[in-house]
Design a protein that fits this description.
The structure is a single chain. With 125 residues, the protein is an alpha+beta fold. The protein has one domain (3-123). It is built from 4 helices and 9 strands, in the order E-H-E-H-E-H-E-E-E-E-E-E-H.
Length: 125
């Protein structure tokens, strides 16, 4: 997991910004990066943050959300955690980390939300 310098860029794009569609089309043949729930759970367990969020770097406003708060897993917040061009990130309080695995190397998808494997890691099972 790579720690990133700086702040989360909330969003470089509007929801219907033509640049979003251009980036998607331009990177259509790239391999999909998906959020690595197991790595995120391990990092949350180590750091024990008050708040953990997940989303896509440079488009956090439209893709990010809370996944852990005050010691509790949050499953009901919206997140979109896969992209061919944006990097999935984990934000622990104010620390930002790249947190992804390539789609072909995992069972996680863009709709995965707290899989059993990640919950076991977080709970120390």
């Amino acid at each position: 997991m790579k720690k990133l310098d700086g702040e989360v860029v909330q969003s470089n794009y509007g929801f219907f910004d033509q640049n979003v569609f251009t980036m998607g089309e331009k990177n259509r043949k790239n391999k999909m990066k998906v959020f690595d729930w197991d790595a995120a759970a391990q990092k949350i367990k180590e750091v024990q943050p008050k708040l953990a969020q997940a989303g896509l770097q440079n488009d956090f406003t439209h893709t990010g959300g809370v996944i852990y708060s005050d010691g509790e897993i949050v499953k009901d917040d919206y997140t979109y955690l896969a992209s061919t061009w944006a990097t999935p990130i984990l934000v622990l309080d104010d620390e930002i980390y790249e947190c992804y695995v390539m789609e072909k190397e995992t069972k996680f998808t863009d709709s995965t939300k707290w899989p059993k494997s990640a919950i076991k890691i977080l709970k120390g099972e």
